[in-house]
Amino acid sequence: MLHKKLEQLGAVKQGNFWVDCETYHATGNTTGQPSKLLYVMHNSETPLSSMALFEGGPGLTADANFDVLMVKLKSHFQNAKGHKVESRGTRYRYCDFLVKIGTVAMSSSARGISVEKN
Fold first, then answer.
1. I want to staple 92 with a disulfide (CB 3.0 to 4.6 A). Which of 5, 11, 44, 100 is the partner?
2. Signal peptide location in the record (predicted)?
3. SS3 call for 114
């Protein structure tokens, strides 16, 4: 429905996009303290980069090989199975705006829609 409304307004389809976020939890926590989470994100707008955000701490931008590093760090960070969130959809150009409309899924189950305007 949103796609049709944008096209009626004169928006031009400009391809597809995707964003994903994988959650990792630290394995070596001290007794009594909750495990910290690390979020690793990928974006089709920046295909050669990975972004990571440590819960309560700094964020970083790395090259796409960051995923290989996470495999090597599996003794320190475990992938939280079933917690991968992704949004996939269509990009539109409307006047000076870039509008992205996508479906948000978690573990391949649709959870909602996303709308981004730049």
1. 11
2. none
3. strand
Domain that holds residue 10: 2-117
CA distances for 92 relative to 39, 44, 97, angstroms: 28, 15, 8
Entry pTM:
0.84
Domain count, the chain: 1
Report whether 84 contacts 106 (CB < 8 A).
yes
Asked if residue 70 lies in contact with residue 61, where contact means CB atoms within 8 angstroms, the answer is no
